[in-house]
């Protein structure tokens, strides 16, 4: 069972005690990501995440790493559109040391100017790596096309121009503004002493600012668009997508099942049609991403330049069949079992459980017991699937992005299929 507590300082914690295990995962979640940034500081959330590992008042960067090694731990962090997370997984009898390391990084990082210059160079290389990956480029282009001026369309990593302009003072101001007690959740899963962990964070985090200014969501207006980039690539990379539902939507699990059915497995419709039957692509899949206020559904295929139109036509064919005929009970059940099994497997990992609890409490203000999730998956019916099919089955609503080796009119292809 999970338990949510609110400390005297106002910060929330979510505990999931699993005493039969010998490990524990702890994560500090912050409701701050790329959607909280402005044009002038794009990438600052991601830069802060990197700099948290570069030394504190008490530990050098090397000492952070070696201290984690000494407890046999695994430390990492990530930045998303809506949140940032810092976490450690370790054996249960080392959880106190793990808490101390994370808290030290979170509260006492120095953000040394010289080290920040060096870390920016690392991120510039990360940008180059992403720019060299046509999948990443095409995916970012699709998000920019779907969301346009909306914050969800911004890159998490930022741009070289925006990153170069970020100063230590800007970082300190951003942390003071965004890293507040009401925007932080501590999530712990595994075998640990709940009272001891709570008391530690009660004391250590007491000095943080209690509240941040209310976040006003930006209104989202969708107009489909097409974007193409010519690069020196051997294969063309196509993304098709459209806005869909938020993580709060009652159709969340219906969408998950539909995504699996359409492009989430080797037995999916898109894989069977485009790869197995027509031999047009090696890699073809679909994906659903959900955020607090909206989300998007997208389809990807990697194909030869002369097969772009054929693949887009095949996708339209499958979307048309979906909208016209819907899905069968057998198809839905097979996809349901895939989603159900994936969720059950994730419950065998303390990191996965910590992640789910932390994210849900941070963004949804609640957590879900495993029985609730499985029941919600099992409750999806053919009427729910019909609703989802109507949302994604019209090719005329899709935006598209393409990274290819030669000049091609994507808009003409999309309007002509």
Describe this structure in words.
By secondary structure, the chain is of the alpha+beta class. 46% of the residues lie in helices and 19% in strands. It has a 6-stranded mixed sheet, with helices on both faces. A 5-stranded mixed sheet has the order 7-11-8-10-9, sandwiched between helices. The termini are far apart.
Show the helix and strand layout:
Elements: E1 2-6, E2 12-17, E3 23-30, H1 44-51, H2 61-70, E4 74-79, E5 84-91, H3 95-108, H4 113-131, H5 134-147, H6 160-164, H7 168-178, E6 184-190, H8 194-204, E7 226-230, E8 236-243, H9 252-263, H10 269-277, E9 281-290, E10 295-303, H11 308-325, H12 329-346, H13 350-364, H14 370-379, H15 382-392, E11 399-404, H16 410-416
Parallel strand pairs: 2-6, 7-11
Antiparallel strand pairs: 1-2, 3-5, 3-6, 4-5, 8-10, 8-11, 9-10
